[in-house]
Design brief:
GO terms for molecular function: glutathione specific gamma-glutamylcyclotransferase activity. This is glutathione-specific gamma-glutamylcyclotransferase. It is an enzyme of class 4 (lyase). InterPro entries: ChaC (IPR006840), GGCT-like (IPR013024), GGCT-like_sf (IPR036568). By secondary structure, this protein is of the alpha+beta class. The protein has one domain: Hypothetical upf0131 protein ytfp (Roll), CATH 3.10.490. Helices cover 27% and strands 36% of the residues. The strands form two sheets. It has a five-stranded antiparallel sheet with strand order 1-3-2-4-5. A two-stranded antiparallel sheet has the order 6-7. The longest helix is centred in the last third of the chain and has 15 residues. The mean pLDDT is 96. The structure holds succinic acid. The site of succinic acid has 9 residues, from α2 and β3.
């Protein structure tokens, strides 16, 4: 399996910073199994969430991969998620968790207040699985993706839970996401 751990250790966009804002858009929204100093709802501009990345290590296996979230560029789109202020040593275990194709990238992020309005900006870090990584699956009909998600299981549990938990977390954030909600609807057929 392709492994980005070593590559990510070279991607020190926040060298010397005592704390870093990490923006989570997938499992990092609802599964914060790492230490953080503070968390705030936030969004990033120019990106859309898609279930176009294979999971061989968490929500599937090399023989029967699952599908998990990544981001694609989409001008003027907004992707809502959760920002966590972390200390730099938290990155090492995150690099391992995100090793199947995700690379650290630096992006501008906007924090959101209780009314859903953007309030302040900061540079942040995302883990991005771009379309040139070996585990990138790309687009497929919604029903096909839902069927794959319904049947895949991996060391972190059923792939179905990843999607359902993400959809629930986005609803709690009051976030719009047509792709995720449509995919979750499809999942009910399987
Ligand atoms: C993220 O959640 O921000 C990255 C993708 C994932 O771990 O699901």
């Amino acid at each position: 399996m392709f492994d980005t751990t070593a590559l990510n250790q070279q991607r020190n966009f926040f060298e010397g910073h005592a704390a870093i804002w990490l923006f989570g858009y997938g499992s990092l929204i609802w599964k914060a199994d790492f230490d953080f100093l503070e968390r705030r709802p936030a969004y990033i501009l120019g990106w859309e969430r898609r279930f176009w990345q294979a999971s061989h290590d968490h929500r599937g296996t090399p023989e029967a991969p699952g599908r998990v979230a990544t981001l694609i560029r989409a001008k003027d789109s907004i992707c809502h998620g959760m920002a966590y202020r972390i200390t730099p040593e938290v990155l090492a275990p995150l690099d391992v968790r995100e090793k199947n194709g995700y690379l650290r990238e630096k992006v501008p992020l906007t924090f959101v207040d209780d009314n859903g309005n953007g309030v302040e900006q900061s540079e942040g870090l995302i883990y991005l699985a771009s379309d040139d990584n070996p585990a990138f699956l790309g687009e497929a009909p919604l029903a096909e993706m839902a069927q794959q998600i319904a049947s895949a299981h991996g060391p972190s549990g059923p792939n179905r839970d990843y999607l359902v938990n993400l959809a629930r977390a986005l609803q709690e954030l009051g976030a719009e996401d047509t792709h995720i909600f449509a995919l979750e609807q499809q999942l009910r057929h399987f």
